[in-house]
């Protein structure tokens, strides 16, 4: 059942009904979007506190508003916990989200027109890594690297050759659809050779890094950018983690360079999430996310799914549905009707258009947060296989049957912060 929101229901019943419907949807579906997760009740409560009433331009001890007696220690607590958890010299927890955090990096270390390098978006990178339709590709000279066609892995020979030829000021590593371990040391070696600032965007894998299920970008990266949700299970926010030499330009770029007052309720929720991520149980969670993804990848491969790079080392799986003769968009929409929430996605060297691509991206963070284990991954693979087949056959009855089966399993595994009753 949806949670009780008496004040919201009284003030705005139309919106309350939509919130309740979303709560029910999150409760009884198998959420497999790789960038989504469930926050704990504590994180949810912190996000909704009276801290949303407070303005706090500046940094702890250096504010432009009075009345910061409680806000300053909250931000200091969040920043200290972030630096400790990730082994950084300095942490800025004010960025509103991942894209603004990355924009702050550009403002700190580059000038408009400078050359920057990042992973091509269709190959698994992010819009803000210099892709053409992004402001970062319009204001800067974006050079893009990719993956090998035969392995689906990053082509470091290409990365090195491009870096030597174009001498970028910034090199971004990380992205949104990379199913394999990121070799931060290899990127660092190339960046040092051309005296570039290495930026590791770990938005997707931050929780895995915190939990020891993925190698850390430190000490290799100069700056680390990350969101605070996804695998980290925090609120929708972001952080910039740096070596000491890069702290001041990053702080200046965030404020006053790009932002005014930070969102203090989000900062508080970030502090809670970081505290949770420092617990031994979170390490178990992070490793379980990877174990589930690998078990699911193996089960899908057995059913003839073409997995980019052959599998996964982290939380996400990228599939090329071309052999199944079903476009990614049609498959994703059909699976959604079956209660399996995914997203259609380009795959490397995709001949189809980005809004109607060949691929499907799935992830295991949310289902792991609900307590599903490797023992459940066979069933999840069966549902995906049946759902894709039903999409091809336009069999809505089959999708409806899967929807009921998914809801039955979800009822047995309540989501954190969202009791199922």
Q: Give the CATH topology of the largest domain.
A: Aspartate Aminotransferase, domain 2
Q: What fraction, in percent, of the residue positions are helical?
A: 40-55%
The largest β sheet comes out as: 7 strands, mixed
Portion in beta strands = 5-15%
Separation, N- and C-terminal Cα atoms: 5 Å
CATH superfamily of the largest domain: Type I PLP-dependent aspartate aminotransferase-like (Major domain)
Number of helices: 16
Q: Which regions are unreliable across 5 or more consecutive residues at pLDDT < 50?
A: none
Instruction: Provide the number of structural domains.
Output: 2
Strand order of the largest sheet: 4-10-9-8-7-5-6
Class from secondary-structure proportions: alpha/beta
Beta-strand segment tally: 15
Q: What sort of overall outline do the alpha carbons produce when their principal axes are compared?
A: globular
Return the CATH class of the largest domain.
Answer: Alpha Beta
Rg over C-alpha atoms, rounded to the nearest angstrom:
22 Å
Mean pLDDT: 97
User: Can you name the CATH architecture of the largest domain?
Assistant: 3-Layer(aba) Sandwich
Subunit structure: Homodimer.
Protein name: Serine hydroxymethyltransferase
EC number: 2.1.2.1
Pathway: Amino-acid biosynthesis; glycine biosynthesis; glycine from L-serine: step 1/1; One-carbon metabolism; tetrahydrofolate interconversion
């Amino acid at each position: 059942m949806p949670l009780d929101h008496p004040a919201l229901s009284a003030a705005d019943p139309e919106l309350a009904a939509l919130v309740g419907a979303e709560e029910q949807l999150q409760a009884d579906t198998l959420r497999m979007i790789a960038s989504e997760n469930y926050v704990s009740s504590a994180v949810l409560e912190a996000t909704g506190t009276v801290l949303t009433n407070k303005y706090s331009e500046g940094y702890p001890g250096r504010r432009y508003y009075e009345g910061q007696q409680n806000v300053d220690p909250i931000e200091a607590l969040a920043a200290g916990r972030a630096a400790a958890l990730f082994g950084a010299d300095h942490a800025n927890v004010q960025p509103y989200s991942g894209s603004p955090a990355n924009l702050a990096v550009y403002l700190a270390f580059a000038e408009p027109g400078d050359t920057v390098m990042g992973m091509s978006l269709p190959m698994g990178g992010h819009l803000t890594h210099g892709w053409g339709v992004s402001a970062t590709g319009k204001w800067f000279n974006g050079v893009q690297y990719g993956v090998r066609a035969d392995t689906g892995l990053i082509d470091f020979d290409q990365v090195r050759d491009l870096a030597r030829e174009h001498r970028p000021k910034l090199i971004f590593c990380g992205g949104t659809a990379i199913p394999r371990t990121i070799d931060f040391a290899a990127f660092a070696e190339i960046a040092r050779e051309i005296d570039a600032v290495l930026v590791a965007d770990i938005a997707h894998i931050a929780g895995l890094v915190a939990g020891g299920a993925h190698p850390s970008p430190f000490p290799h990266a100069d700056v680390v950018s990350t969101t605070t949700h996804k695998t980290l299970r925090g609120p929708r926010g972001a952080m910039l983690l740096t070596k000491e030499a890069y702290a001041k330009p990053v702080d200046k770029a965030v404020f006053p360079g790009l932002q005014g007052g930070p969102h203090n309720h989000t900062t508080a929720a970030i502090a809670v999430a970081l505290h949770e991520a420092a617990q031994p149980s979170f390490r178990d969670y992070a490793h379980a996310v990877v174990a589930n993804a690998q078990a699911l990848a193996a089960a899908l491969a057995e059913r003839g799914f073409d997995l980019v790079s052959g599998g996964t080392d982290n939380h996400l799986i990228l599939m090329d549905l071309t052999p199944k003769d079903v476009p990614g968009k049609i498959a994703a929409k059909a699976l959604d009707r079956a209660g399996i929430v995914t997203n259609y996605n380009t795959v490397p060297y995709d001949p189809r258009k980005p809004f109607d691509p060949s691929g499907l991206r799935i992830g295991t963070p949310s289902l792991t947060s609900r307590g599903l284990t490797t023992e459940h991954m066979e069933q999840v693979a069966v549902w995906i296989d049946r759902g894709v087949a039903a999409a091809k056959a336009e069999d809505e009855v089959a999708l409806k049957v899967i929807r009921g089966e998914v809801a039955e399993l979800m009822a047995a595994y309540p989501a954190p912060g969202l009791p199922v009753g």
